[in-house]
Amino acid sequence: MDMNQYLEVFIEESKEHLQTCNEQLLELEKNPEDLTIVNEIFRSAHTLKGMSATMGYEDLANLTHKMENVLDGIRNHKIKVSPEILDVVFEAVDHLEEMVMSIASGGDGKRDVSDVVSKLQIIEKGESPLKQGNAKAEVSATTVVENNVSSKSHYDEFELTVLQQSKEQGFESYEVTVHLREDCLLKAARVFMVFEVLEKIGEVIKSTPPAEQLEEEQFDSEFTVTLVTKESAEDIQKKVLKVSEVEKVEVIPVNFNSIRNASEHENVPVIVSENVKDTQSVPSNSEKNKSEDQTKKAGNKQANTNKTIRVNIERLDILMNLFEELVIDRGRLEQISRDLNNQELHETVERMSRISGDLQNIILNMRMVPVETVFNRFPRMVRQLARDLNKKINLEIVGAETELDRTVIDEIGDPLVHLLRNAIDHGIEVPEERVKKGKQEEGNVVLKAYHSGNHVFIEIEDDGAGISREKVLKKAISKGIVSEQAAASMSDRQVFELIFASGFSTAEKISDVSGRGVGLDVVKNTIESLGGSVSIDSKEGEGSVFSIQLPLTLSIISVMLVEIQKEKFAIPLSSIIETAIVRKDEILNAHNQQVIDFRGKVVPLLDLKEIFEIPVYDEGDEFFSVVIVRKGDKMAGLVVDSFIGQQEIVLKSLGNYLNSVFAISGATILGDGQVALIIDCNALIK
């Protein structure tokens, strides 16, 4: 069977299950007694094991199986949760992630995991009563016990009556205990095969654990089935032993005296069955009620489940490219409609514009991904960093459901890692120092995401030591980044932004984690390449806030089209505060820079003709058209010849050949076929 057709689904689902394991293990560390968390991890591990075995990745399946054994010991109260045990399980998950990544990149998923396997086996054997099971395994597999002291299973009055009537009709009742091999991968499949064998030679009355737990593999390596049959114990044993991966079978006659004595203390109503064959179709009242409740829950769950389909991201990219071409043609049609001034054509184009606008929203939403896909990796990273640095850190994530375009999501991960590592390494103090300052031992780091207009803001806030203005200025002056004269007049925010300079760091010693400032130039460059910005707010001794502003999407943006001489340019609306008409005599000069008074603030003017070296054909009149743009708390006025109007355009890259053109972030094709360059306001203000 060709499994390659399922490979992509396997990789995606494996990543999801491993992410669940990581998240739930962190929860388990906080709530070690909560078995629902253990069951959630077990389910993900069990599903991953089954998928891996089916796809033929034996190493992956075997390691998951060993991890599953430890989890099973925890939920059966044989192993107590401790940080040391969780460290080993986390290590196993790391190996599993590496194996899946190897498969995703075309490898075979093989990896030397002998070390972590031995650790898992030590936990499994040292912390649980499996030694007794190993001792039992040494007994011959052909042993048949004829007399037992007490029954392994507990029977209610209904089951007891069925067994009694079966005995009166000449049937024998046995408890068949099946031991599966330790390395058995698909326990549920073996259970099914054992049941199939037993049901051919008799009637199954009961199983311990119950059938539901057996199907979900919620048991160790053995289970017991009560069988009513006319076959001998030896025949039963021989037939069950033929099932592969069955290590040992014990067939024990039911001890009616022991189970009768146990039931005398219970006040359970007797339900009489006419014959043995009806036993499986007549559940007890409690089982019936439970079954009805489960059916209702399953029905409700099914009714509430959204119908979804997995789509390869490449198909979405192709769809997006096709739609971008449609947007360009839409602009062309709108231009033709205006030129011809035909009413019917105008109405049709308007309707097409509305429909394509709705289509645009749907396609863009399809590409939107919750930032939790990036945030999910951080709790595990923070836990490890805190242990490495001997610090106590509480990471709080807010707004993980906030959505961003997939292109932005792909790029934002590394900058956030840099900022988090810096916050933990140089922001949060060690517990002893925090106590001296009157703070709690545990430092708090808040990772927050939220929408605001056409932007998404991501903030990383810590309650650590903050940034020292004096230390930053001293370092900046020594490196020649600023002069002493300029430093004296700088605001706090301007000083803090100096740490984004390349190679700048206030770290007194180099660590293998990071110093606040190390790699921050990369952070700034990456974010600005996405059309975003990053700012810092800090108070020494109280903490810092790094705020990242990002566009919702990178492909289709709203712009203001302007004309400079005979050339057209586009300015992103997200950067514009407003437009204004300014008289020549209102323009002032300060420090050899033209400025205007805009609502009580001095705003520098930038003449785009000079910046882009555009040939001057017309000197213009006594009025200037100005576009006021903003980046953070800085503003500038861009002088243009005229405003054309607002339009949605497709942002196209200039390519590698023109990637260093100053203050131009891309280009677009307008409705009349002309190319308009898109102005990078951030670069101009900087």
How would you explain this protein's 3D organization?
- The chain is of the alpha+beta class.
- It has five domains: 4-128, Up-down Bundle (Four Helix Bundle (Hemerythrin (Met), subunit A)); 136-280, 2-Layer Sandwich (Alpha-Beta Plaits), CATH 3.30.70; 313-369; 371-551, Histidine kinase-like ATPase, C-terminal domain (Heat Shock Protein 90, 2-Layer Sandwich), CATH 3.30.565; 556-685, CheA-289, Domain 4 (OB fold (Dihydrolipoamide Acetyltransferase, E2P), Beta Barrel), CATH 2.40.50.
- A six-stranded mixed sheet has the order 14-18-19-17-16-15. A five-stranded mixed sheet has the order 6-8-9-11-10.
- Helix 2 (35-55) runs antiparallel to helix 3 and helix 17 (406-427) packs antiparallel against helix 22.
- The radius of gyration is 35 Å and the shape is elongated.
- 31% of the residues are buried.
- Residues 127-150, 261-306 and 512-518 have low confidence and may be disordered.
Features:
single chain; 686 residues; alpha+beta; Four Helix Bundle (Hemerythrin (Met), subunit A); Alpha-Beta Plaits; 5 domains; six-stranded mixed beta sheet; five-stranded mixed beta sheet; 24 helices; 45% helix; elongated
CATH classification, class level of the largest domain = Alpha Beta
Describe the biggest sheet? Answer: 6 strands, mixed
Count of all domains? 5
By secondary-structure content and strand pairing, the structural class works out as: alpha+beta
Q: Percent range for helical residues?
A: 40-55%
CATH architecture of the largest domain: 2-Layer Sandwich
